[in-house]
Write a structure and sequence with these properties.
heterotrimer; A mainly alpha (110); B mainly alpha (170); C mainly alpha (643); A: 110 residues; mainly alpha; Helix Hairpins; C: 643 residues; two-stranded antiparallel sheet; globular
Chain lengths: 110, 170, 643
């Protein structure tokens, strides 16, 4: 990375996009770990997906590959489906346990 | 120009993400996430993905996040409670995240051959996209449609009130 | 010179075939066929031995003769053991005794065991015994002899416990086997020592190696000899391992005759004679042999004085006579010992068979106090037994007169200790005559004390062997010690000389006098018609000790058997069952439970900890794949593999 040539009209190195993508992903993981509301945890997952989408688009730009962007398209579709089903599950869990606290939903064990 | 835009909207992304983590109420977290989504849409535009930028706004910010917001309001999710907590999450999770981030960052920083985000020939038109999508990748496209159908059915089935919960007309 | 065709392996193998046929098929065969098989194979074996003997005596067969091209058994490094037989004077004499007397007893058994349900089993075992005994006698090396040694122990166990529904018979069989085993342990140690010091187990090679080192005496050779002696003590029922022989009378009487009188118990004597070249090099071991022999002879004779069971008297008599044979070996008069072995085979087998005839006549009764007056009722049995009783008492010119006298003379000539032992032997001869005549009077004279039985003479199939053995008991010694010793000398060495003519006659007269004294006392005490047991009221304290067999069995039980059982029980129950097996099971279960408990904490159901572990896993995978890249990161072009 070469900082000396950066000024208002220069191009943005693609590595910055990738770094942003990695940061978004990491923040998503952190959110997944520390958040206590089930819905917020789910939102962190969406954040992770978006970070990954950004990196796909970056590489698609690098190689002029349309398939990269199409992959992002599919990711979006799947994320949509997943959000729908996941939220339905959250609603069902809430109806059963009357709580959205992650730590209280702990029946998935031996 | 490009740089300024990038800096502004990358900043918005990060701010929104960090705000998502900081906020206690899910609704504010959801709103932060919407900020992140829209900023990302701008970044996609900067990278020449027109269609994706539009799709991002329409699908993600406009549909998925709205769904999230609806669910938050439906379930009346309040502030986060102090719950039992998990020491494992903090003790194990944080170092793991740090490791992942550090690794990936190191690789990215040392990578060579990465170009810049100049838009000289970088704009991908919707026509280019659809040409590939509806010819080479037609099967995955159709399968995705089926997937969405299945998701709809699943969501309806899961979120429906069960037989034992007759709240209307007792 | 033409190699004579000897069919040596068939001498043992023929009885073995008899064992197989009767053992596997006998249950379904008619009794006549079983009898035929049981008699034909030993007869064929005996004829083969006669053939070999004829060849040897006519000079066509040079002795000692080893079988050429015997198949090798073990060939490992420097150790070579073959299945070879060896025929020399000693083995020839033994083979004749074993197969000849054995065949006679087979014939007798056909009559004696006729009503038995296990008829086929009996003859199968008897043929098996004959197989192993011939292997023992014919073996050219120590290991093969040991095979026969163990095998006759097995056959003895099987036959003692023949009536296996009787608990006393079963325990007697086990006692015989276990006590034999103790002796065999000593024998095994001896074999190991021989192998270690000589590098070979073949008799001829050991003898050759010893002959090449004339100065090699004592030391390890004493150790070897003593170990072998332990084995012989067990098998030949000497002190302290004699306790099994009286109990072995639980078996059928022909078994007692064949195994516990004529053949198996003499295996110990044979073994000492066969390895005489080892014993000759150790005066200490020979002294031990002689002392054990004389002591046993005296000891057993004293017990035999007061026994009431006719077979027990004969059993202790056997132990006593075997003591004489050991005495003979101990003074290096091996040929005298073998001579006595031969005559003993004749008269002791006769005694047992005649006793069996008496028991048969009395309908199974063995207690002499219930007998009496059988002289007129079973005359042939009476006369045969009379011959045997006279023989064993040393009546002049009968068989044992020559052999026992030879042993006593050799003992007397063997120095200071020898004279002491000679005296013991002399006293024992008096005791022997006493208890044998006591038996004779109680059984055949006076009034029949048990009025419920109707004694009748046995069938000729039983009486025939009696008559033959009686004749042998009379004439069996006429070959004379001089010729016998000269004949056996190539195989067992020459008896040490040292007796003059006059001394010899004096010793002989003393021996005969001792026998006459014994007869006279017995005559005075038992010949009156109403005497039941004359010795009993006279000396109560001594009587109880003798009748209780010196309580040796009880001593063994409390000193050895009970502690062993307790230790074994403790070991089995606590160490093995509880500690080892229980511990292993507990350990395995404990490990599984422990791991389960640990791993169970992992599945807490807590979403966030699952997420944390997911992150850790992802980090680990990334590390695994990307560390090499990051370490050599500068200059690494991740685009090198293009699209």
């Amino acid at each position: 990375m070469n900082f000396t040539s950066v000024h208002m009209f220069s191009d943005v190195p693609l590595s910055w996009y990738l770094l942003l993508s990695a940061a978004l992903f990491a923040l998503g993981v952190v959110g997944f770990l520390i958040k206590r509301n089930l819905i917020t945890v789910f939102m962190s997952i969406e954040l992770m997906l978006n970070g990954v989408n950004l990196s796909f688009v970056t590489f698609a730009h690098q190689w002029h590959a349309v398939k990269g962007q199409i992959f992002v398209f599919f990711v979006m579709m799947v994320a949509a489906a997943e959000a729908a089903v996941g939220l339905a599950i959250i609603i069902a869990v809430f109806r059963a346990r009357s709580t959205l606290a992650v730590d209280r939903i702990d029946l998935m064990k031996l | 120009m490009h740089l300024v835009l990038f800096l502004i909207f990358a900043g918005f992304c990060l701010a929104g993400a960090i705000n998502l983590l900081i906020q206690r109420h899910p609704i504010t977290s959801a709103l932060s996430l919407i900020v992140v989504m829209t900023s990302l849409a701008v970044l996609y535009l900067l990278l020449g993905a027109e269609f994706l930028a539009a799709a991002q706004v329409i699908v993600y910010a406009g549909a998925i996040m709205v769904l999230f917001t609806f669910v938050v309001m439906l379930l009346n999710a309040g502030r986060e409670e102090r719950t039992l907590g998990s020491r494992a999450a903090i003790v194990l999770g944080f170092p793991a995240v740090v490791v992942i981030l550090a690794l990936v960052a190191t690789i990215i920083l040392h990578a060579q051959g990465l170009g810049t985000a100049a838009l000289r020939e970088g704009i991908t038109s919707t026509q280019d996209l659809s040409t590939v999508l509806f010819t080479n990748l037609l099967l995955p496209f159709e399968v995705t449609s089926v997937l969405i159908l299945v998701a709809i059915l699943g969501a309806v089935a899961l979120a429906r009130r069960g037989d034992g919960e007759r709240t209307e007309g007792q | 010179m033409n190699e004579p065709v000897l069919f040596l392996p068939f001498i043992p193998l023929l009885p073995f075939f008899g064992f197989l046929i009767n053992g596997l098929l006998g249950r379904r065969l008619p009794k006549a066929l079983v009898s035929f098989v049981a008699l034909a194979f030993p007869c064929a074996s005996f004829l083969l031995v006669l053939h070999v003997a004829y060849l040897a005596w006519s000079g066509s067969l040079p002795l000692p003769w080893s079988e050429p091209n015997a198949p090798a058994w073990i060939s490992a490094g420097a150790v070579h053991v073959s299945f070879g037989s060896v025929i020399d004077q000693l083995s020839l004499v033994m083979l004749l005794i074993v197969t000849g007397v054995g065949f006679l007893i087979h014939i007798y058994s056909v009559g004696y065991m006729h009503e038995e349900p296990g008829y086929w089993r009996y003859f199968a075992y008897l043929n098996l015994f004959l197989f192993f005994m011939t292997v023992l006698v014919q073996a050219g090396n120590v290991l093969l002899m040991f095979v026969g040694w163990e095998g006759v122990g097995l056959a003895s166990y099987l036959l003692i416990g023949f009536w296996y529904q009787k608990p006393s018979a079963v325990s007697a069989g086990m006692k015989a086997f276990v006590v034999n085993r103790i002796g065999d342990f000593g024998f095994l140690i001896g074999i190991f020592l021989i192998l270690a010091n000589f590098g070979t187990l073949t008799f001829s090679e050991i003898a050759a190696r010893l002959a090449a080192n004339p100065a090699w005496t004592g030391g390890v050779l004493t150790a070897i000899a003593l170990c072998l002696l332990v084995g012989a003590t067990g098998k030949s029922a000497q002190l302290p391992l004699y306790v099994w022989l009286p109990d072995a009378m639980e078996g059928p009487t022909p078994v007692s005759a064949l195994i516990h009188a004529a053949t198996m118990v003499t295996a110990g004597v044979y073994m000492i004679a066969r390895t005489h070249f080892l014993f000759d090099r150790s005066p200490f071991a020979l002294a031990v042999v002689a002392i054990i022999g004389a002591a046993t002879a005296f000891f057993a004779a004293t017990i035999g004085l007061v026994q009431t069971d006719i077979k027990r008297v004969l059993a202790y008599s056997t132990v006593s006579q075997l003591g004489y044979m050991f005495l003979g070996c101990g003074v290096a008069a091996y040929s005298a010992a073998i001579f006595h072995l031969m005559t003993h085979a004749f008269f002791k087998a006769l005694l047992f068979l005649a006793a069996g005839s008496v028991i048969h006549a009395m309908g199974g009764e063995q207690d002499m106090r219930k007998m009496g007056g059988l002289r007129t009722r079973v005359p042939i049995t009476f006369w045969s037994m009379t011959m045997a009783v006279l023989a064993i008492s040393g009546f002049p010119f009968m068989s044992a007169f020559f052999s026992k006298d030879a042993i006593l003379a050799a003992a007397f000539a063997a120095g200071g200790l020898g004279k002491v032992l000679w005296f013991v032997g002399l006293v024992t001869a008096a005791l022997t005559a006493f208890y044998m005549f006591r038996l004779w009077y109680l059984t055949f004279f006076g009034e029949l004390r048990d009025h419920n039985t109707h004694p009748h003479e046995s069938p000729w199939v039983m009486l025939g062997p009696l008559v033959i053995l009686a004749m042998l008991s009379v004439i069996g010694g006429w070959i004379g010690m001089g010729h016998f010793g000269a004949y056996l000398a190539p195989s067992v060495g020459v008896r040490p000389e040292g007796r003059t003519g006059g001394l010899e006659y004096l010793l002989t007269a003393l021996a005969v006098g001792a026998g006459a004294l014994g007869w006279y006392i017995a005559h005075r005490m038992y010949h009156s018609p109403t005497t039941a047991d004359g010795l009993a009221p006279a000396t109560p304290p001594g009587y109880k000790l003798l009748a209780g067999k010196y309580y040796v069995d009880e001593i063994y039980t409390y000193l050895i058997v009970k502690p062993l059982l307790m230790i074994s029980k403790f070991f089995l129950e606590w160490v093995v069952d509880f500690a080892i097996l229980g511990g292993a099971a507990w350990l395995l279960g404990g490990i599984a439970t422990l791991f389960g408990a640990i791993l169970q904490r992992w599945q807490s159901g807590n979403l966030r900890s699952y997420a944390a572990w997911l992150a850790v896993g992802a980090a680990a995978i990334l590390l695994f794949f990307l560390i090499p890249y990051t370490l050599g990161a500068s200059g690494f072009d991740i685009w090198a593999r293009g699209r």
